[in-house]
Structure formats: C-alpha cells, structure tokens
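Supplementary Methods. Inverse-folding protocol.

Structures were first reduced to a discrete structure-token string of length 202. This string, shown here, constituted the complete conditioning input.
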C-alpha cells in the first residue's frame, strides 16, 4: 500500500473513531461534521469525501463496529411477563441513552435513500433483538402462556418497534413504566383464549 493510501485509510479510521466518541459524548443532535473533523484531526472536506451527510458517517461508524452491544438471550424463568418486562426495561434504557437515541435517529436517516444500508443495519442491530425475542416467545408458546395461533414475528416486531417509534417521534422518551404497560398490552392480546388475563400474570 502506498504512503498516500495509508494516510487516507488512517484518516478514514480516525473519522469513524471520532464519530463513535462524539456520538456517545454529545449525542446525535449536537454532533457536527466540523466536530468530527476536528476530533479526527482532518479537514471537513476530508469527511465529505467519503460521506455526504452526518447520518451517513454515523451509519458507517456503527457498521464498522464499536456502537453495537452483544445481544444476550432473554432470560427464561418460566414467567413470560416477568422476562419480557426485564427485557423491555433494558431496551428502553439503551434506546434513551445519549448514544442509543442518537444512533437510532442517525441510522434511520441513513436508511432513507439507501436500501442496501438499511438491510445491513437491520441485520446488524434490529434483527438480533427480534430473534432473541422470538426464541423466548416460542418457549412461552410451547408452555401454553401464549396462544398457539399467535403470530410470534408480529409480537416481536410490535415490542421492538413500538419503543423505537417513541424515540423517533422525539417527544416524551419511553420510560420503564411505558415498557411495562406495552408488555401487559401485548401479552393480553396474545394470551391463550381459554385463559384470558390469567396468562398475562404468569
């Protein structure tokens, strides 16, 4: 690799690292291309050489690593309501952190005009959470705590998407109480028909 290419790659990596640092430090709203360039020690035009917008550089920073967290399997205590409440409270805490909310806003903006980026971001961030939820919901369905006819992918998407929407709406951020209410509502809707509300309390 030539010295010019080495310098170019070093600058690109510095920009991505600066983006990750500043997103966590100041949030998406206060993040600027000028700030990224200054932190990375490059000119603003160097940033624009690779990315056309703030959301685009944040998306690349996310996909190149450092912003996502490993998704752990949901606990299976035998009580689906308790397990989902624990998951939803953790999901809310992550989404409403400065880094989390900024990441959601940035990645949503970055996907508007680029379906390939949208697909990559879904596989990297959203799909792992939905997969983990589906596994726990399937276990609850086998245990008779969720109706056998319930559409589990829709249930998982509702739980993930409802809280994401609250962040995107940029009004009152979701709280732990909101998460608990959402879990109760969703479980009531997919409770076994012969048990009704009793299944929600399990």
């Amino acid at each position: 690799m030539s010295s010019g290419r080495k310098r170019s790659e070093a600058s690109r990596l510095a920009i991505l690292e600066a983006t990750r640092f500043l997103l966590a430090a100041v949030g998406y709203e206060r993040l600027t291309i000028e700030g990224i360039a200054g932190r990375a020690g490059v000119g603003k035009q160097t940033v624009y050489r690779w990315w056309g917008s703030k959301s685009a550089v944040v998306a690349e920073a996310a996909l190149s690593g450092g912003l996502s967290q490993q998704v752990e399997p949901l606990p299976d205590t035998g009580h689906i309501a308790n397990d989902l409440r624990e998951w939803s409270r953790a999901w809310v805490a992550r989404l409403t952190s400065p880094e989390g909310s900024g990441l959601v806003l940035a990645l949503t903006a970055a996907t508007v005009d680029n379906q390939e980026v949208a697909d990559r971001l879904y596989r990297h961030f959203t799909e792992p959470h939905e997969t983990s939820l589906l596994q726990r919901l399937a276990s609850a369905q086998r245990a008779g705590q969720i109706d056998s006819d319930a559409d589990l992918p829709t249930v998982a998407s509702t739980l993930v998407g409802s809280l994401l929407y609250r962040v995107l709406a940029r009004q009152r951020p979701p709280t732990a109480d909101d998460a608990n209410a959402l879990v109760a509502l969703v479980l009531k809707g997919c409770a076994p028909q012969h048990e009704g509300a009793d299944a929600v309390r399990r």
